[in-house]
Amino acid sequence: MSKPQRPLSPHLQVYKPQLTSMMSITHRATGLFLSLGLVIFVYWLFSLAKSPEMANEIIGFVQTTLGCVLFYVWVFAFSYHLCNGIRHLFWDAGKGYSIPAVYRSGYMVLVGAALLTVLVYFLGR
């Protein structure tokens, strides 16, 4: 008896990416990225308590172009994770399960995250 030469379950090669699956993956990725940002933030707080000069070096890095880009990517990740978390709270309450509502709320999350990031950018100037 030979085994059939077919996959046991559907794989990523079978399905095309959908808004819902991409947003789920992005939600997890932003959670990991936020965890990394939290480690850096705690390191900065530790350095601030230990040596103000050390903390100023970190602030100096954040003021560089690369530091600003990383900061605003972190702000976008936070905004996205927050908005998508609110979306999940509505789902937990049993609201917004229809396909049109899922896509509408998905686009609302993307627009909301972008708007919050732009708001932080202009408030920080």
Describe this structure as you would to a colleague:
The chain has helices spanning 19-50, 52-62, 65-92, 99-124. The chain has one domain (19-124): Fumarate reductase/succinate dehydrogenase, transmembrane subunit (3 helical TM bundles of succinate and fumarate reductases), CATH 1.20.1300.10. Helix 1 packs antiparallel against helix 2, helix 1 (19-50) packs across helix 3 and helix 3 packs antiparallel against helix 4 (99-124). It is mainly α. The relative contact order is 0.11. 78% of the residues lie in helices and 0% in strands. The longest helix is centred in the first third of the chain and has 32 residues, at 19-50.
Show the helix and strand layout.
Blueprint: H1 19-50, H2 52-62, H3 65-92, H4 99-124
Helix and strand sequence: HHHH
Instruction: Give a quick account of the main beta sheet: strands, pairing sense, barrel closure.
Output: none
Give the CATH H-level superfamily: Fumarate reductase/succinate dehydrogenase, transmembrane subunit
Task: Calculate the mean pLDDT score and round it.
Answer: 91
What is the straight-line distance between the termini? Answer: 71 Å
- Per DSSP, what share of the residues sits in E-state strands of 2 or more residues? under 5%
Assembly type of the chains comes to single chain
Helix content bin? over 70%
Overall geometry: extended
